[in-house]
Amino acid sequence: MKRGVMIALVLAALAAFGAGAFAYRGEIATRLLERAAAGGMSDALAERLPDGLHAIFCGTGSPLPDRSRAGPCFAVLAGDKLFVFDAGEGAAETLALMGVNAGDIEAVFLTHLHSDHFDGLAPLALQHWATGSAQQPLQLIGPTGAARVAAGLNEAYAIDAGYRTAHHGPEIMPPAGAGLSAREFAPPLAAEPIVLHDRDGVRISAFRVDHAPTVAVGYRIEYGGRSIVVSGDTARSDSLTQNARGADLLVHEALSPRLNEIMRSAAVESGRANVGAIFHDILDYHASPEDAGAVAQEAGVGALALTHLLPQTPIPGLVSTFERDARTRFDGPVWAMRDGDVISLPLTGGFERSRRLRF
Ligand SMILES: [Zn+2]
Ligand SMILES: [Zn+2]
Question: pTM for this one?
């Protein structure tokens, strides 16, 4: 057979196959959805994890646009109790895609009142209400000012809440369960921590970090002899080092000065001096990967997880620069986290890493 004839036949066969497949594509996709929906509704993350303390990365981004990273969100499953630390934009969506039921959340703790750390709160409160038919609002615990944030969001969502109850009925959407209830605390002025939660074997304490002029705290979470410390937003902080001492896992924010400088100079060269100024200003209240590594080394933690990566990382290999720079200061394991990652600390010891993100 001549080569030209053969190519024509192959092309004709491919076209016929493509047309046939196209006709059935919608049907095939519908069948796949049936299977995915059945699996998704019953596939709760908590049921697949051993007893222990689990670090759930539900938002590893920053205010800068990045399709692959939600705004700041970190959740901890301690035994069967679920706590969330910050809820940036996309937090509720990412938690749901990880198989976490918002109706199970005990409380949301805020590290500080920068809006990118709470602009996903209202959708999370709505999910908490709707998926659990909650009888109580989602509890918000944060530094002074958190009650004002909660009151504002509750007011903004009051009309919507009324519509939901009117449509689904008070048994499905009980009016008492809508929105947020806030508990404020005066942030400690120095490294001395304050205990905010001590129940069911779970202890959560807050301590001051350095994010001036913003008042900010980090948290230490302990359960069954395992411990996780979350930095929140901070420059290199002695208070954090002190409070992270001996923790199994340190979850630390990181800003790469080298990558940030690329963004700053690109902004200035494009005539966007104001954006360039912002890239310059953020250097003084965030920590470099080297800073995070130094804190981890000095505190003697078991492992370091980097999150809140700045600037954005649209090219996959960029995250390895964060890990490499932190490793220059820390001898233990360093991981730059992605949305959907889970680090488990079983009560039996060690670390187990897994990835949970549907679709
Ligand atoms: Zn901040
Ligand atoms: Zn931040």
Answer: 0.91
